[in-house]
Amino acid sequence: MEHSDGGSTVSVRTRNLTHTAPAEVSLQDALDALGDPVRRTILRDLAGSPDWTRACGTFDLPVTKGTRSHHFAVLRAAGLIEQRDEGSRRLNRLRRPEFDEHFPGLLDLVLAEPAAR
Amino acid sequence: MEHSDGGSTVSVRTRNLTHTAPAEVSLQDALDALGDPVRRTILRDLAGSPDWTRACGTFDLPVTKGTRSHHFAVLRAAGLIEQRDEGSRRLNRLRRPEFDEHFPGLLDLVLAEPAAR
């Protein structure tokens, strides 16, 4: 979903990480990203921690390492999270204000969802 | 998703049609239902017509008759539409107020989406 046209670059690359701004995300991509319960768990966990304090490895997820990386990549591509590397850790931030601006109410529904039983 | 416990029946059966009340729908089921572009097209079309004026056959959808029936069944099970049969026609109503109450903002995002290109 990286995209640039002339002078205006709408995606930001942090080292090797491609980010998509929420304003560039389609409703389809947002719904696809939020349609997975593991990804919603990540978002709820992130919402409960200050920005840039949670490394990917600190999330308790019932998936393999490869699947975990895929989930974070999908969240990044849907404008839901921002990531940056610090040493060997990849830190995360929930893009709550900017996602809310583009998809009002959607993240609120996810964050209010009861944790998976 | 039909469910009844003693005196309180939360789903309503109209002849052979099972309905689920939005309050009984999980976020997962709502997101799954809304994750399909054909189903979102049906909802946008319905929103533009008065209740109970649109028969299933009047929607211009790029799918077979069987797939069409499946999409309407998914929307019914997710608390998004109500249906009733009148003669040979199956009429539809968008359950906008009650769905909005349970999932504030979600249907607004779908209805505001530009039609598929």
From TrEMBL, chains A, B:
Annotated spans, Disordered: 1-21
Gene3D superfamilies in the record: Winged helix-like DNA-binding domain superfamily/Winged helix DNA-binding domain
InterPro entries, alphabetized: ArsR-like_HTH (IPR011991), HTH_ArsR_DNA-bd_dom (IPR001845), WH-like_DNA-bd_sf (IPR036388), WH_DNA-bd_sf (IPR036390)
Polar residues biased stretches: 1-19
Domain HTH arsR-type: 19-117
SUPFAM superfamilies named in the record: Winged helix' DNA-binding domain
A GO MF label: DNA-binding transcription factor activity
Record protein name field: Transcriptional regulator
